[in-house]
User: What shape does this take?
Amino acid sequence: MTIIFITGGVRSGKSAFAEKYALEIFNNQEGASLFYIASGVAFDDEMKKRIKRHQEDRSKSNEAWQTIEVPDDFPPEMMGFKQNDVVVWDCITTWVTNVLFKTEQYSQQQRIIKINQYINQFKSYVTHWNENQIKLIIVSNEVLDEPQSNFAEVNMFRKLLGELHQWIVSQSDEAYEIDYSIIRRWK
Assistant: This one.
């Protein structure tokens, strides 16, 4: 069982580190497959370029990455990983953002219920994968160093993400923070 959490600022080198680490793990796993769970949605030109760059980076390796698009809801194939498969989920920050957008039409009380359903489903998947010895690398952005916002939505996002990060780290075997391509192992 291996869960690895990688966080850091935007464009800090998190994805490159996660993909390289995943390939190292994958190359030591016989009969395993290599998966990339992508949560980015190409809603503007900048995001389209970032997604394309990530796809090009993965295509440079000699390994066949299998990509699963998960902007918010979990597709059934996410329960099909087998023992020792290597999975990179990039990134949880984007996934949480997408969940917030998807639930914004609900009343505040109903919205919190829906968001918690997503978070609980995420936790159940991570727990299931861990029990089934899936090698999981979770990437997320570090946004909690910023000062408190004047906007309730931003503060709700920070609270959700902070609590989710704490839970992920509590489940993780390793936790890294990357700033300016400098890697710091915290756990």
Remarks:
- Residues 108-131 form the longest helix (24 residues).
- The beta strands are 2-8, 34-38, 65-69, 86-90, 135-141, 174-179, 182-185.
- The chain has five helices and seven strands.
